[in-house]
Specification:
Elements: H1 4-20, H2 25-51, H3 53-61
Helix pairs in contact: 1-2
Length: 70
């Protein structure tokens, strides 16, 4: 996984909602997920520009957020 911190953040939000007894946190998930997808895309473009083929090779070996899926 290339972005463990973002995955942790995505898991934290619903967990906080459950802990606080609020389902309203679920309403925030779609825009946050959209923001993270854009942010990951931009970060990875910067990393490819900086590290070139070494980072592309790393991308081919690993998933972004969810092992075996994305």
């Amino acid at each position: 996984m290339r972005h463990q911190g973002y995955l942790g953040f995505l898991l934290l939000l619903p967990g906080m909602g459950l802990a606080l007894g609020s389902v309203a946190v679920v309403a925030y998930l779609p825009p946050i997920i959209a923001w993270l997808v854009v942010r990951i895309r931009d970060e990875e473009a910067m990393l490819v520009a900086e590290f070139g083929e070494a980072y592309r090779s790393y991308q081919r070996r690993t998933k972004r957020l969810i092992p075996l899926l994305y």
